[in-house]
Design a protein that fits this description.
By secondary structure, the chain is of the alpha+beta class. The protein folds into 3 domains: 2-66, no CATH class; 68-135 and 231-307, Immunoglobulin-like (Sandwich); 139-229, Sandwich (Immunoglobulin-like), CATH 2.60.40. Helix content is 14%, strand content 30%. The chain has helices at 2-21, 35-46, 57-66, and strands spanning 71-81, 122-126, 146-148, 150-151, 154-155, 159-163, 168-171, 178-183, 190-194, 199-202, 212-216, 223-229, 234-236, 242-249, 253-259, 284-288, 294-302. The strands form 5 sheets. It has a 5-stranded mixed β-sheet with strand order 6-12-11-8-9, with no helix packed on it. Helix 1 runs antiparallel to helix 2 (35-46). It is globular.
């Protein structure tokens, strides 16, 4: 297409030169061709220079989008605006000599730090290109297993994000038995009795749109969540509310899904009134990053965002 335009431009310039070197044109003839304008068009095409607002601007922008290269980082911090609710005591009525011995067990569904950072918010990104460091894991991979332990009748990791086919070592460090259940919407479920000191291997088989619930049939107050994704474009906020997703593709629109177990959106989607990110009522926003950019988001979460 570009070669055709250049050849056309050269022919146009040649015709214009011929016309100028010939006899004078009658007054009734059409507008004279401008050889300098033809040369300018040819130079812009050869140099791939397109002025904003011209007819060629949109195709040039689309070409730049399709040939985008490079990688970037998305990071940020979720902070609560307002006062967090006081954590309530859970009703522990079984194996009390082990479960919550002493101070009992407090509800940990909403953990807010002294600086208002919010823990256990899940984010995952959907992108067309995937960096080698974030590629899906094959079955039977050699990645180090993740330890998912339970102690004093609580899951030590309340929200665990991992990749499909990631090996998980489901462990029981209590002196009593547990029954650990993982209930994914799509993947293979897990339901195992775990005697004291034992562990069982589990690997999520499918990508999930929402975290799978983890529970214990013996101790019903125990609850956790597992978020398996194919690629490694996910994060769970730390106790200070911070997160980071590295090696995201630059130059393309990336959709980010945000979830919290007490989010008021459908299925726990965390919904924020953030106009800059055009945050939707499904807990999603889109973002485009530049090559080598580290985008740092300061995200304010009102009390009304949680159930």
């Amino acid at each position: 297409m570009q070669k055709t335009l250049i050849v056309g431009g050269l022919m146009f310039a040649a015709l214009a030169t011929t016309a100028l070197s010939g006899c004078s044109r009658p007054a009734s003839a059409g507008p004279r061709p401008d050889p300098q304008a033809a040369l300018d068009i040819r130079k812009r095409l050869e140099g791939n220079v397109v002025e904003a607002g011209s007819d060629l601007a949109a195709p040039a922008a689309a070409a730049a989008e399709s040939s985008a290269t490079g990688w970037a980082t998305l990071k940020g911090t979720f902070k609560l605006v307002g006062n967090p609710p006081a954590p309530r005591q859970l009703n522990v009525d079984k194996d009390t000599e082990v479960c919550g011995k002493g101070a009992g067990i407090q509800d940990n569904s909403l953990l807010v730090a002294s600086d208002k950072g919010i823990a256990n918010i899940v984010l995952y990104a959907k992108a067309k290109r995937v960096h080698d460091s974030a590629k899906p894991l094959a079955e039977g991979n050699s990645a180090e297993p993740i330890v998912f332990d339970q102690k004093q009748c609580m899951f030590l990791t309340h929200v665990l994000a991992c990749q499909v086919n990631q090996k998980i070592d489901v462990k029981n460090s209590d002196p009593i038995g547990h029954n650990t259940k993982i209930d994914p919407a799509k993947g293979v479920p897990f339901n195992q009795n775990l005697p004291s000191g034992n562990s069982v291997a589990y690997s999520p088989s499918d990508e999930e749109a929402l975290p799978a619930t983890i529970s214990c049939s013996i101790h019903p107050w125990m609850r956790g969540y597992l978020m398996p994704r194919k690629d490694k474009y996910f994060a769970v906020t730390k106790p200070d509310g911070s997160f980071e997703i590295t090696n995201l593709p630059a130059g393309e629109e990336i959709e980010v899904q945000v979830w919290h177990e007490r989010g008021t959106g459908a299925g726990g989607a965390l919904v924020l009134a953030n106009k800059d990110l055009k945050w939707t009522n499904k807990g999603r926003f889109n973002i485009k990053l530049d090559a080598d950019q580290t985008k740092d988001l300061a995200l304010e979460v009102p009390e009304t965002a949680f159930k």
